[in-house]
Design brief:
Blueprint: H1 17-26, E1 29-33, H2 42-53, E2 56-60, E3 68-69, E4 72-73, E5 87-90, H3 97-106, E6 111-114, H4 121-129, E7 133-135, H5 140-144, H6 150-153
């Protein structure tokens, strides 16, 4: 892909509803980097809600002996996942986003999504240069249940 074909988002401005809706209605498989088995952690709640909403969730956590979260097989890293991934959601420190972006590119993901507080403009540019859509400092669980989503999901308003 040449730079003239790349669409760079202004990650300092709010994302449009259409951009977020396009992502969340097109992805099916989400790898969650930083998934936790601890029910008190925000990542656990987001994983639960996205899974119950119908997304195929793939927890990623390098902790030894962590085999499952909510009955889902846990992978130690993105490159060990044995099937295609549409979106990589990141529950890590902002400084980890660049390396996660490299792995998301390596596995052919279509979207890199940094959770609230996870933002790195250099990582975003790397991912966008590789053709990925990027969202940072937002929560897909929150975006999913904003009013404009409900008709798209067939849920009552």
């Amino acid at each position: 892909m040449t730079n003239s074909q790349i669409t760079y988002m202004n990650h300092e401005e709010p994302y449009s509803d259409d951009y977020l809706q396009g992502i969340l209605t097109s992805v099916k498989t989400i790898a969650m980097v930083g998934a936790s088995p601890d029910k008190t952690k925000f990542s656990y709640g987001v994983l639960r809600v996205l899974h119950e909403t119908g997304y195929e969730m793939i927890p990623v956590n390098p902790r030894p002996n962590l085999r499952e979260i909510r009955g889902l097989k846990v992978y130690p890293n993105l490159t060990s996942i044995d099937r295609p991934v549409d979106m990589v959601e990141v529950f890590r420190k902002p400084e980890d986003l660049y390396d996660v972006a490299k792995d998301a590119i390596a596995i052919g993901a279509k979207v890199l999504w940094g959770q609230i507080g996870v933002k790195d403009l250099v990582a975003a540019r790397l991912a966008e240069d590789a053709g990925l859509k990027v969202v940072m400092d937002r929560c897909p669980k929150i975006e999913l249940f904003r009013p404009f989503w409900k008709p798209k999901l067939g849920l009552p308003i």
